[in-house]
């Protein structure tokens, strides 16, 4: 049985070069922002800190996490982690009523 599959010479050359570089048939790592290196310890620590004080700012929380884990996480990463743990920021919705005496 004959398959009508046509493969160019350049396709074979590129495949062999890629295989030689990687020594594997796996795909190359994806480009873009690397996966977050959030550990279970970091999640538990962040959740515990928020339990202590749910009014803690992201800046304060980032400082505590970085001191405890001796790493340098960005404030945005801490905000995303806090949100993923279910801690959402809600503003107070008070309505002020003005009374005018006539």
What order do the helices and strands come in, and which of them pair?
Elements: H1 9-22, H2 40-52, H3 58-69, H4 75-84
Question: Can you put this structure into words, describing what you see?
Answer:
By secondary structure, this protein is mainly α. It is built from four helices and no strands. It has a domain of 45 residues. It starts with 8 loop residues before the first helix and ends in an 18-residue tail after the last helix. Helices cover 48% and strands 0% of the residues. Helix 3 packs across helix 4.
Q: Mean pLDDT, nearest integer?
A: 83
- Overall outline: elongated
SS-based structural class?
mainly alpha
What's the helix-strand series?
A: HHHH
Q: What Rg do the Cα atoms give?
A: 27 Å
Cα separation of the termini: 100 Å
Q: How many strand elements?
A: 0
Unreliably modeled segments? none
Number of helices: 4
Helix share bin: 40-55%
Strand content: under 5%
**Largest β sheet strand count, sense and barrel closure:** none
Compact summary:
The chain is 48% helix and 0% strand.
Provide keyphrases for this structure.
102 residues; mainly alpha
């Amino acid at each position: 049985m004959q398959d009508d599959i046509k493969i160019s010479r350049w396709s074979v050359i590129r495949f062999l070069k890629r295989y030689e570089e990687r020594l594997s048939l796996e795909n190359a790592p994806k480009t873009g922002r690397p996966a977050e290196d959030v550990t279970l310890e970091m999640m538990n620590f962040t959740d515990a800190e928020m339990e202590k004080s749910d009014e803690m700012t992201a800046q304060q929380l980032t400082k505590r996490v970085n001191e405890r884990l001796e790493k340098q996480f960005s404030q945005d990463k801490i905000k995303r982690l806090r949100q993923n743990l279910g801690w959402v920021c809600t503003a107070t919705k008070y309505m002020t009523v003005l009374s005018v005496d006539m």
